[in-house]
Amino acid sequence: MLKVVGGFVAGIVVVVLLVYNFAGSLMFREIQSPFGVEETVARIQQNIQNAGNGWSLSGLRNAAKPIELDGGNVLPVLMIEACSTRYSGPILKDDSLRFLSNLMPCKISVYKKNDGKTYIGMMNAELIGSLFGAKVGGIMKQVSADQAKFVVFDASKPAPAMIKGTPGATSGGAGAGAAGGC
Amino acid sequence: MLSRLKFILPLMAAGALLAAPTASAVPAEPAAATAPQLETIIKPKASTADHSKFKELNRNFQTGPQVTEACLICHTEAAKQVQHTKHWTWESTDPKTGQVRGKKNIINNYCTSPVSNEKDCMACHAGYGWKDDKFDFKVEKNVDCLICHDQTGTYRKLPGDAGHPVYKRVEFPKGSGKFVEPADLKKVAQSIGMPTRSNCGSCHFFGAGGNGAKHGDLDASLQHPGKYLDVHMDEKGLNFTCTTCHATSSHEVSGSRYNVAAAVKGPAHIRGKQDESPAACQSCHSDKPHHEAMLNQHTEKLACQTCHIPEYARNEIGTEASWDWSQATIMGADGKPMVSKDSAGRRKFDSKKGTWVWDSYVIPEYRWYNGVSTYKVIGDKIDPSKTVQINEVGGAPGDADSRIWPTKVHRGKQPYDKVNNYLTVQHTAGEDHTALWHNYDWQKAIGAGMKAAKLPYSGEYGFVDTEMTWPITHMVAPKHDALACEQCHSKSGRLQGIEGVYLPSRDSNKWLDMIGWTLVMLSLIGILIHGGLRIYTGKNKGQHK
Amino acid sequence: MNAVNRRIYLYNRYERFWHWSQALLVILMMITGFEVHGSYKLLGFGNAVNLHTVAAWTLLTLWAFTIFWQFTTDEWKQYIPSLKKVDAMVRYYAYGIFLNAPNPFHKTAAKKHNPLQRLAYLALLSMVSPVIWGSGLFYLFYSSWKSLGIDAWLSLEAVAFVHTAGAFMMLVFFIAHVYLTTTGHTPTAHIKTMVTGWEEVD
Asked: Percentage of chain B with pLDDT > 90?
């Protein structure tokens, strides 16, 4: 009997350890881009603008800039922020879910690594959404499907220009991001 | 931190008994070899002469040469000095090989050659009037003092004027709606001072006709650099100008890619000492600048730049990775010349010039280099079946005078004479009917270019792949951004393809590894069998008793 | 002497301290050493090198004390080889151990190691140690080669080769050594002795 219980407990421990070990990599996805950093960003931005479903760009953040201003070096990291009111609306209306605004806007990061190649990092929206019940899970599943299309590239099309900042935003200030959809 | 611990720990453990022998093993060396601290660095102070008070300069100059004549009234030897430098001759003789190189003689894989294009290219000549091969290099008033010494920032030289500054308001670039105003030459002459970053940068930041295009480690971001970009030129910190390192005497600027001090040895230089390579890192830092002997030992194989410039073109400006001339003369869908830009807004295609690929934050390619480069000069034979090396980088793996250097390798595709097997000179700039950028006809452009270069042209041209290798030496990062050990000491690190060094963690003897791990496996299997047998026979033990 | 268990004090406090600190250092050096060699990535190359160096100097220091201790206590005599009963030991490990035959060797305070052990330790001391330490010291002082003129006749590659070969020998010894500690009258008996100093003798 003791052996059975012991084995059971050991099994649970192993599973927990495995989950602990791999959960991080399941929640995020990293793929290599065939283009340079700027072109990857520009093509993703274009895909987002053409995606429909209420998607629009909310901004482009350069995470390397503050480090440079601080006197340090880091390889380029650009974060494309995008949002769809169609998906954000229902979550933001629900008091029990408003905390999920932490995950908004959707972010796709494009960065260079030491091998000189460009990579795209994304959240696994479907998996993370599924942790918060059926409603969020359903929404995030659609977000996830849209997101997958953001990183499908047609190399035969000419490279669009990278859009810096928030398209349509008048100037800085708290309201500047409003034009970006969310 | 660990490096300190490494010595303190054993010493603590050793106590008095072993203090003497281990102390001799402590590799830390006195910090004597480090660069001077911030407060001791002398900043260029105001001159003792106020040029606005000189009556010679208190007149309305019409042309550049008039200003030079005024300068030479007092600075009697200045023009002669300049006329001995590369900035004037565009020529450089290698002291080791005797080869005569310089912009005038080589064909690179950017704009290729100034020959037959002097009127445009000589916008960056420190002189006035070099528009063809009849330019007289002895005329002193044709030396341009102002391009290097102007402090107003209004003195501009544009392509097409053979080195003369803008005298009349002109639209530039043509059709852009932007205009360049002529400078007030009197004000410019009265403003003069020691060259600033802007003076040098007005040409060196814009090589190959675009910001950052040519060098990658030199671009306009160095006019107001932050610490991250260049620890020495940091505007809020050391604030070096170009000439802080490129110490100059008699107008001879030290430090040149044509003659690189690739492996400087010995201690830091003291003032007053004859200095062969003042622009080298070692002249201030010595060849043993670190506190740890193990790091200092690296300087026997590596250039300082290899670790301390982890990437170059570290900004959005970027630099050109390649230039494909074979795409030039391709027109847009409407049959008219077209231009396009890449996602970052940098030139990507131009019917005049072909296609470019740009990159930012570029990881260098590493090469053994002894400072001597052999260039393809006009008329040198090439083997078009291979990628042509515009400059053969000298040095060999493990050679005592060579170091592993970071380089920018610029890939090109450019015209060559298919019968005579040499790179061609082409007449690109100009308004005449043979100019490529005017008439989009390669045959005529090459014909005119080769005629100007006094070289036979067979009439048959093709395009050949070329590579040009540039040692990277600017944009030194702060020390905490130097490459980490494992960026080279690993199987797929930065120095993956570099021979001539045994690099722990990258290199190992594969036979030894195979035999070693086999033995380890065999011992493990052995104890498994032995242990298994013991467990099996041990179960029967009780029955014996 | 009956079946009543008798205990003898085999390893004194210094000896045990020496053994276990040495064990720790050797394990640390193998982990960091094979990382420096490029067999895997664990701590990062720089950290591995630094730890390896710290451990090397610490172990050298420990040895200095231990050699002093060996000679002042005459314990060095434990390593004088003897071929007597070697065949008996070999036979015991080869099959006697499976037949529950008695261990032909009886530990006493004067003779702590069986003849096979003596040979093994002597080999370790006289062959593996010089290989590792000789090459290791050259490796450690690589930055001084030039000033000493060593670089003219020695390459880092050769030193690394010898050092790695020594490391493999050490690893094999380590595996065998750890396994043989389980061959007491209970699997943990020898290990207990090494911790407490007391050996239970039949």
From this structure: 83
Q: Is the pLDDT of residue B75 over 80?
A: yes
pLDDT of A139 strictly over 80: yes
The answer as to whether B24 is a domain residue is no
Is residue A41 included in any domain, yes or no? yes
Q: Which amino acid is at A89?
A: G
Query: Residue C35: what residue type?
Result: E
pLDDT at C116: 86
Contact B485 C44 (CB under 8 A): yes
pLDDT of residue A167: 57
Interchain contact, A39 vs B342, CB within 8 Å: yes
Q: Do A158 and B340 touch (CB under 8 A)?
A: yes
CB contact (8 A) between residue B481 and residue A68:
no
Please report the domains of chain C, with CATH numbers, ordered by start residue.
9-201 (1.20.950.20)
Q: What angle do CA A54, A57, A58 make, to 5 degrees?
A: 110
* Phi, then psi, of B171 in degrees rounded to 5: -80, 125
The CATH number assigned to the domain holding A61 equals 3.30.310.70
Verify that B458 and B521 share a domain, yes or no: no
Residue B256 DSSP one-character state: B
- Eight-class DSSP state of B127: B
Q: Which chains share 3+ C-beta pairs under 8 angstroms with C? A: B
CB nearest A72 (choices: B311, B361, B478) = B478
Measured between beta carbons, the chain A residues lying within 8 angstroms of B363 are: 114, 116
CA distance B455 to B133: 14
Between chain B and chain C, how many beta carbons pairs sit less than 8 Å apart?
A: 131
Quote the radius of gyration of chain C (alpha carbons, Å). 20
Q: Range with the lowest mean pLDDT among B99-108, B495-504, C79-88?
A: C79-88
Q: Establish if C95 touches chain B: CB-CB under 8 angstroms.
A: no
